[in-house]
Design a protein that fits this description.
With 218 residues, the protein is α/β, with parallel strands linked by helices. The protein is built from 8 helices and 5 strands; from the N terminus they run E-H-E-H-H-E-H-H-E-H-H-E-H. It binds adenosine-5'-diphosphate and magnesium ion. The site of adenosine-5'-diphosphate has 16 residues, from helix 1, helix 6 and helix 8.
Amino acid sequence: MIEKPGLFISFEGGEGSGKSTQIRRLEEWFRNQGRDIVVTREPGGSSGAEEIRTLLLTGDPGRWDAVTEALLMFASRRDHVERTIRPALADGKVVLCDRFADSSVAYQGYGHGLGPDYIRNLWELAIDGFKPDLTLMFDLPVEVGLARAGARFANVSAAEDRFERMGLEFHQRLRNGFREIADAEPQRCRIIDADGDIETVSERVISTVEAFIAGQGA
Ligand SMILES: Nc1ncnc2c1ncn2[C@@H]1O[C@H](COP(=O)(O)OP(=O)(O)O)[C@@H](O)[C@H]1O
Ligand SMILES: [Mg+2]
């Protein structure tokens, strides 16, 4: 606790599940309580990691093989953890992160078939297994999420949509993968039913975070 007096919350789930929308809502909620807060995202969140982000999220879906993709993710993540996340937590801030290492377990582990253990080993090697205090997993039927994400990208040029274009079966493996991760670590992970309007989902997020904080203080 001396090394990490802040609170680190990650947002996970498929494309279009509402992570970015809800992170802004939760940011507002924490600000209203007077907490210092850092909102960040992966891949990215530090200047070096943002450069790697472009390599990962643009271009042909087959641009990288699965191992290279996983290594690029952890290279960017290490930079992000060392330069952005750990310093903010050491200052006692709340860090809200749009995706973190569970996305590597889901996308490269379950989605591309490297297997969850392979990615968990990388996680250990690259960032000493550093984890969020709380992880919110946004769960939504794949078709609903991709339809939402497609609408979002319709009016954006040079879209960062490399993963969106990976096909329905890939995204179904992601959804199942996120559920398995949550089942394996119930003390850290909470599944959020993301199928509902923005206000309803926001209420689910805030009550989950309130319960977590209350349990932490006890
Ligand atoms: N609960 C919701 N119901 C309907 N549309 C939503 C909901 N939450 C977000 N959206 C819309 O769906 C799209 C994807 O949401 P976003 O928050 O960007 O998802 P993610 O970050 O998980 O990919 C956006 O256009 C957003 O406005
Ligand atoms: Mg998003």
